[in-house]
Every structure is written in structure tokens, then in C-alpha cells.
Design goal:
Layout lengths: L6 E5 L4 H13 L4 E8 L9 H7 L4 E6 L1 H15 L14 H16 L3 E3 L8 H12 L4 E3 L10 H10 L12 E4 L4 E4 L29 E8 L2 E5 L2 E2 L2 H14 L4 E7 L5 E7 L1 H17 L2 H19 L6 H13 L5 E8 L2 E8 L7 H4 L11 H9 L1 H13 L2
Parallel strand pairs: 1-2, 1-4, 2-3, 4-5
Antiparallel strand pairs: 6-7, 7-12, 8-9, 8-13, 9-10, 11-12, 13-14
Helix pairs in contact: 1-6, 3-10, 4-5, 7-8, 9-10
Length: 404
């Protein structure tokens, strides 16, 4: 099988793992051609050296694809509208980034006539599942290669030694944490975080201020939504990238969006991670506030159940499954009236409600007022309670009869 692979498209980040994978693939798959593909989903300055580094590592071609806007509008916004959060805390920053990267890998593989797609995800993590399930869903005949499940390199030092042997430029300084970054979040794993008893160090935060270092004065922000999607900040209409970038800045300076969770990985183990999600945390809070105003009780409560399942599907790499697509259709239906403005107060890591309004609000002061009204007959409640409580009454009568 190795000899049949002539051309491989590699998910390339520019880090040590994927840089080493390029010569490893050529060495172990009969000198196959390796095409590096790097997805730009808002990771910033990390991309600057990627093109030249990939070529120096032995890639025949390098594709750097700007997917940031598509990432937000086609993956993040649908998840936000669903209200999907994994295990009550994790806003799925890495989870929904992998399907869009793998989708681009498939497109380039088809364009270039590649036999296989490779990735640098380890055999212990969730990303291997997310990459490979997406490829299976979109290109079932393309072979998948996961070097971490095949090679003999079992440590950073062995990877560095391999890189030096093959003339690959690598930075030997070991980062304290394993990090993943895109426009939505920054994750931290490893080092002292591997002991859940350890408090995260303030020096670890690279986006958000530590809450105690945030300004002593609260900052107010308004977010406008149209059919569940954010469209403006502080009254200014913005595209998706500008909007999230703006909210990231506002949230970060107020210490908002730091999440510490010991989550259940799909592969069976628990993993401790700390996430910086300033803009995303603001959007989730604001979107929920607007739904409180615009969705009826039955719809909102059922949507809460959908949100849990939706979050599990995203976390598990099932973005392109039929159920996720069906749930998104349900969510889109619920969002037709989720339009309006939410005002929030940010203060030292806290997000506090400060008012919301919508032309589709289901709140009616006439019905809930404690003052005189002409729309609600309080005597109607007697019959409602009698019928609603009838099962309780019948059971109590039965118990009296059978247990005198």
C-alpha cells in the first residue's frame, strides 16, 4: 500500500510535528510527493514563516488558504445559533476548526490528483477523529495517513533529532504549553495544567487579561443580531471577521472568556484545558439573552436539549453527518425571530446583563404587570390548576384508599 501512494496532501501548520512529517512521508512512502496545505483561520503571525518552511522541509507545493470568514459564517455562527457548548464550558474552538481544514484538504487533494491525505494529530487526541471523519464524509476513497500512529518518533527530542538529520529548520525551544489558536479561541494544555489541582498561571494568558488586572470601571457593549447571527457591535454594522475581532479586543481587556475545564475526550480519557474565548463568550451570552426574549417556552426548552446533542456532534467530528445537518435546519427555523439588540456590562472577567430589546419580543408587560390590567383574568388560573394537578389528586386519592 505504501508503494501505491504517489502524492499526499498534508495538513501543515509549520510546527515541529508537521515539518518532520514531510520528509518522513517521502522516506516511508517511496519518495511520494508531499503538498503542504495550511488553513488560515485567524491564527495571526504564526503563518508568516509557513510557506518557506514547508518548501525547505521538502514539500513540492504549498497552499495557504484564507478560510477565516467561511470558518465564522459556515461553522461558528451555526454552532452559536444552536447554543452548543460541550460539557457546559467548552465553546468548541478547536472542534469546529478541524472540519473546515479537512474540507479544504479534500478540495486540494482532488484538484492535485492526490492519493492520500495526512495529518499530524496524535493517537491520543480528538483531532485525528475530526480530520478523518470529515475526509470519509467528503472523499471516501482517499487514503488517510496518520504518522503519529505509525512512526517510531515518540518524543520531542526524537523529532528534533530526525529534523536535524534531514536538514529541517526547527526551533528547539520547548513551549511551556501545547496551544491551538484561531480567531475564535486560544487553547492551552500540558505542563503544570496536567495536574487539575494547579491554578492556571496569569502569565499563561496571551489574549485576555487576568480578571484582577482588568480595568476597575465596567465597560458596556451592545450586539445586534439578525435571525440569530451577530451583525453589529455598538451600533456599527460589521462583517463576521471584523465583528469577532472587535469583540475579542473588548472582551480581552476586561478579562472575559477564560475557561478552565477537565473535559471528557472522545477517545476515553479526561483532558485538562484552559481556553481564552473573549469574543465568543460575549456572543454566546448575548445570543442567549435575546432567545430568552424571543423564543416561547416549549421551543426554548427543546432547543436546550438540541444544543447538548449538537455540541457532542461538533466535538466528536461529526460536522458532516446527517443529524448535525438536520439539527441545523431545526435551529435555523427557531432563529427567524431572534433579531434585536443586547446590551452587556463587562467587569473584571464577568459578563452582566444590561438590557435587551427585539421587535419580536414575546414579553408583554400587560400580561405580567402587578398593576391593573384588562387582558388577564386571574380567575382562569383555578380551572388550569385543577386540570394540571388532576393526576396528583387522583394518585393521592388512590393512596388513601389502598393505605388507610
Amino acid at each position: 500500500m505504501m508503494g501505491q501512494i504517489k502524492k499526499v496532501v498534508l495538513a501543515y501548520s509549520g510546527g515541529l510535528d508537521t515539518s518532520v512529517i514531510i520528509p518522513w512521508l517521502k522516506e516511508h512512502y517511496d519518495g511520494c510527493e508531499v503538498i503542504a496545505c495550511c488553513a488560515d483561520i485567524g491564527q495571526g503571525e504564526e503563518l508568516a514563516p509557513v510557506h518557506d518552511k514547508a518548501l525547505k522541509s521538502g514539500a513540492s507545493k504549498v497552499f495557504i488558504c484564507d478560510l477565516t470568514e467561511e470558518f465564522l459564517t459556515q461553522y461558528v455562527w451555526p454552532t452559536l445559533k444552536a447554543g452548543a457548548v460541550y460539557e457546559d464550558k467548552y465553546l468548541l474552538g478547536t472542534s469546529f476548526a478541524r472540519p473546515i481544514i479537512a474540507k479544504k484538504l479534500v478540495e486540494i487533494a482532488k484538484q492535485e490528483g492526490a492519493d492520500a491525505i495526512a495529518h499530524g494529530a496524535t493517537g491520543k487526541g480528538n483531532d485525528q477523529v475530526r480530520f478523518e471523519l470529515t475526509v470519509k464524509a467528503l472523499a471516501p476513497h482517499i487514503q488517510l495517513i496518520a504518522p503519529w500512529r505509525e512512526w517510531e518518533l515518540d518524543s520531542r527530542s526524537s523529532e528534533i533529532a530526525y529534523a536535524k538529520k534531514h536538514g529541517i529548520p526547527v526551533a528547539e525551544d520547548n513551549k511551556t504549553y501545547s496551544m491551538d489558536r484561531n480567531i475564535w479561541h486560544l487553547s492551552h494544555e500540558g505542563s503544570d495544567l496536567e495536574d487539575p489541582a494547579n491554578e492556571p498561571k496569569d502569565s499563561m494568558f496571551l489574549i485576555a487579561k487576568a480578571p484582577q488586572d482588568a480595568p476597575d470601571k465596567p465597560e458596556y457593549v451592545t450586539i445586534d443580531f439578525e435571525k440569530g447571527e451577530p451583525v453589529a457591535v455598538n451600533g456599527k454594522k460589521m462583517g463576521a471577521v471584523e465583528l469577532l475581532t472587535t469583540l475579542n479586543g473588548i472582551g480581552a481587556r476586561n478579562g472575559v472568556g477564560i475557561v478552565d475545564i477537565c473535559e471528557n475526550r472522545l477517545v476515553g480519557m479526561k483532558s485538562r484545558g484552559v481556553y481564552e474565548n473573549p469574543g465568543g463568550s460575549i456572543l454566546y451570552y448575548a445570543h442567549r439573552e435575546l432567545e430568552y426574549l424571543c423564543l416561547d417556552r416549549m421551543t426554548y426548552h427543546y432547543k436546550q436539549q438540541v444544543a447538548i446533542r449538537f455540541g457532542e456532534l461538533v466535538y466528536d467530528g461529526m460536522w458532516f453527518c446527517q443529524l448535525r445537518e438536520a439539527l441545523s435546519a431545526f435551529v435555523d427555523s427557531t432563529q427567524q425571530t431572534v433579531t434585536g439588540t443586547v446590551r452587556l456590562k463587562l467587569y473584571k472577567g464577568n459578563i452582566i446583563s444590561a438590557g435587551s430589546k427585539s421587535p419580536y419580543s414575546l414579553y408583554s408587560k400587560e400580561f405580567v404587570t402587578f398593576e391593573h390590567d384588562d387582558v388577564y383574568n386571574q380567575a382562569d388560573a383555578t380551572g388550569f390548576i385543577n386540570l394540571f394537578g388532576l393526576p396528583l389528586k387522583v394518585r393521592a386519592l388512590m393512596q388513601e384508599k389502598t393505605n388507610p
